[in-house]
């Protein structure tokens, strides 16, 4: 159980920090509807993403890939990335170092 709040990040998308340490942070992103968007962005953090549930089309730089439950991948620092939800679900992201902007 986490004491961190659920924060809206877009239409039908929320994030919740699950755990954090200065060197690592775990965050759940919940997509409530098909078509919900995780906007294209980049950051200096290395990110790993695990698809807990749902189906998503990710843009990773110039590449696109569809991912579903059990899939995982790593996003290097400063790579532009984002996703579109194809079936509602949850992504669990880990960031190193911690995303202080999420606190």
UniProtKB/TrEMBL annotation:
Single GO MF annotation: dioxygenase activity
Gene3D superfamilies in alphabetical order: Jelly Rolls (2.60.120.10)
CDD domains: cupin_KdgF
Annotated ranges, domain Cupin type-2: 34-87
Pfam families per the UniProt record, alphabetical: Cupin_2
PANTHER family with a match to the protein in the record: H2HPP ISOMERASE
Protein name (Swiss-Prot/TrEMBL): Quercetin dioxygenase-like cupin family protein
Biological source species: Sulfitobacter noctilucicola
Lineage of source species: Bacteria, Pseudomonadati, Pseudomonadota, Alphaproteobacteria, Rhodobacterales
């Amino acid at each position: 159980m986490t004491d961190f709040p659920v924060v809206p990040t877009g239409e039908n998308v929320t994030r919740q920090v699950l755990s954090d340490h200065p060197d690592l942070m775990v965050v759940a992103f919940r997509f409530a509807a098909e078509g919900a968007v995780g906007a294209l962005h980049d950051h200096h953090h290395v990110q790993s993403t695990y698809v807990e549930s749902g189906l998503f089309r990710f843009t990773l730089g110039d590449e696109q890939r569809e991912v579903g439950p059990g899939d995982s991948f790593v996003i290097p620092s400063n790579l532009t990335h984002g996703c579109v939800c194809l079936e509602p679900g949850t992504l669990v992201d880990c960031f190193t170092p911690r995303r202080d902007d999420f606190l």
